[in-house]
DNA sequence: CTAGGGTTAG
């Protein structure tokens, strides 16, 4: 066995502004500490036991300052006294007093007590002072599992997963056995790390340790394992761990449901929820479960399902919980029922910034930019400070509505008025806003002037705008960077090919299509959903119609002929295959969205609104066809694409052909 | 003395 680097003697700093321990002030305001003049009777008390009791009771009363004063006169503070003091510092969020207590501990020689070292690490972790937590750990000679775990927890919380894993390795080499808590922390560390990928192998290794040490039936550990795989995108692994659990509780079920939602498999999320209700009698879903289930409904635009869940939430009395409320607002907005979202919002007794953000983004995706800005201002008026997500929401709303000047002003106000520094997403919003409005040079300038290294999001936004306005030159520049940053994202290649096709540069189209054949590319197939009588039906685009889609094809063909007589021109230029016009038209008719619309026309009553959601941006041909259909079939058609809602009515779309 | 799932955006 080898020894860790020798603990250095701890030197208590002399002045209160400590050079040894880094004292970083917390951003939020601390509760005021009482400063009552010390009662001389207490100050001179000689009885140690009495003093200890007094210090503890002063802490309980929240009089930390006086407690510390008394501590300096007490030669023999007990472990319990120190514990009380440390907890009190956490409660008051007072790092400077925490440092004082620490200094006293060192002075009295009690800092080597592993129990108190654990408490100190927790304290520094709570007070956002990870460096001090680490120093305590380094100087503690007798490291119980509690001491290790406390540091693991602290490091995981600040995202230093790699450090946790390297310490975990050392711990194993030293022969210190892990316990159930250790496993939960190190599993979390595989997710909470500076490096985003490649920790899966480490997680699997820990998984093996867990099985080897007989924790395969431990609910907490196994649930954490499910969650780790979920966070790393390994749905199959998560499911197999979940399936193998001998006992499960609400948390395990919720973790697995959340796993499906997070990894864009909402159907499976809803299915598992149903299974949970049917298979388990003794446990019932709670607010956390409901949030995930609502998210699944939202992502599918499954309005009827969502309403059922809403009823379920009301019956179970989970409706006063803020996150549930916010998710309900989002669910209704994303299912195309903005007015119901607004109604839920109006009923909320208290609202936090997340509730406001839900509503703002709701108006945004429906194209009501001005309204979104108005709600943003209302939020501030109500004393709620915007978060960085508020800005993503409101800037996105400006973008959908083409409110360039307003968006610029809001962007400027971020730093000036709210001290929120733009992140990648904000820059992407601005590039999108300007680019969509055909101010491509300005959009490119935003990228040039960025204070951080431009990532895929901003280049992607620029390329998307080049697609709309057919700017080959800028598109080539953007895609060059984009291909370096995300070489496996097929969507980017398709965008560029679209642009070349629009510009009739067929050789270039061919060249890009060659690149698209690379097997490693991640292609997202176009997919649309429609809910009919509480059942979801999904459609993927087809190049050839088969027996099942025959009826839909016939209807679409008939509609197409009628529409052509009234001025519809198929946008065959977006078909990237080298085929004749007739063939291209056939391919256009096979787009998943048209299939879903046709299915909706056949399977819903004549006055009923057709609601469709799809996973990609709506193509121009589908957009134009849906406009026609809304007029000639006299139907309201609501389509949610990747970015926003299109509300088709009487031949017009709410996006104003700006999307 | 410590532990597991969820809220808003794109």
UniProtKB/TrEMBL annotation:
Domain DYW intervals: 567-659
One Gene Ontology MF term: RNA binding
Region (Disordered): 1-21
Highest rank taxon of the organism: Eukaryota
PPR repeats: 144-178, 249-279, 352-386
Protein name: Pentatricopeptide repeat-containing protein CRR2, chloroplastic
Any one Gene Ontology BP term: mRNA metabolic process
Species the sequence originates in: Ziziphus jujuba (Chinese jujube)
Family label: Belongs to the PPR family. PCMP-H subfamily.
Keywords: Repeat, Transit peptide
